[in-house]
Amino acid sequence: MSQQDNHLDEMATVLKDIQLAYQKHPLSFEVKYTYANEHTPRVVLDSLEGKVCMAGADYRYILDNTEMVRTGNYSVVVFKEDKLLYLGKTTTDTLAASPLQPLQDMARQAGVRHCEVMYKKHRKTLQVDFQDGLPYRHIEMTLDTLSGYLLQMRYIVKTTLLIAPGASEEVGKEYEEYALVVADFHHYQPLAAEKDLFDERSFFVKKGNEVFPAAAYADYKIFIATPNF
């Protein structure tokens, strides 16, 4: 148990450092995800690219045909293919939580078998191995020690977690039981001030107790995820 606690403390320290680095200044960066089988990591089966904009607790995340915006008041997810706006209220708990908090919670609940922090020039790498039989087998995060920003994340995860519920049997047929997901983060730059970047009114408007899509999403349906919205 003592060794487990030490591993969790090491992991918590690295995650906290990353969180603090991203909160210093508003910034944007690009991300590319690649997917491969665990045992054939060089054979890329799929990929996605996107962009993230962050300013304090507000962020906007665009990935392929999905877009997510979180502010101090609302969380909005835009599913462009389905023409759906998923709306929810941002609670005090979710506002205070770090985007990396789910990773730390998972580690505490599931159990870490091994955790190690390695240094090479201006790079720091956190490697975490989880107990056998869990959805996640291994997570590796590399960050720049000068800026504190993430450069890459690699994780080995059960393929079933990557396939959308209700997908046809053909989807993911070429995958092994575990897949390797690699996320590369690049093109970090200060975030230019944009009036509507985190403005929920770009997505919906409230009139009394009713909610309507904004003009740019006039043909979208709305799903309210939280009561008393």
Q: Can you offer a commentary on this structure?
A:
With about 230 residues, this protein is α+β, with helices and mostly antiparallel strands. The protein is built from three helices and 14 strands. The protein has helices spanning about 1-25, 90-95, 100-110; strands at about 25-35, 40-55, 60-65, 65-70, 75-80, 85-90, 110-120, 125-130, 135-145, 150-160, 180-190, 205, 210-215, 220-225. The chain is globular. The N and C termini lie far apart (about 45 Å). About 10% of the residues are buried.
What topology emerges from the helices and strands here?
Layout: H1 2-23, E1 27-37, E2 40-55, E3 58-63, E4 66-70, E5 74-79, E6 84-89, H2 92-96, H3 101-110, E7 112-120, E8 123-130, E9 136-144, E10 150-158, E11 178-190, E12 204-207, E13 210-213, E14 221-224
Parallel strand pairs: 6-14
Antiparallel strand pairs: 1-2, 1-11, 2-3, 3-4, 4-5, 5-6, 7-8, 8-9, 9-10, 10-11, 12-13
Helix pairs in contact: 1-3
Supply the key terms.
single chain, 229 residues, alpha+beta, twelve-stranded mixed β-sheet, two-stranded antiparallel sheet, 3 helices, 14 strands, 48% strand, globular, disordered N terminus
Class from helix and strand fractions: alpha+beta
> Which residues sit in consecutive blocks of at least 5 with pLDDT less than 50?
1-5
Mean pLDDT: 82
Count of separate DSSP helical elements: 3
State the helicity in percent bands: 10-25%
In short:
Helices cover 16% and strands 48% of the residues.
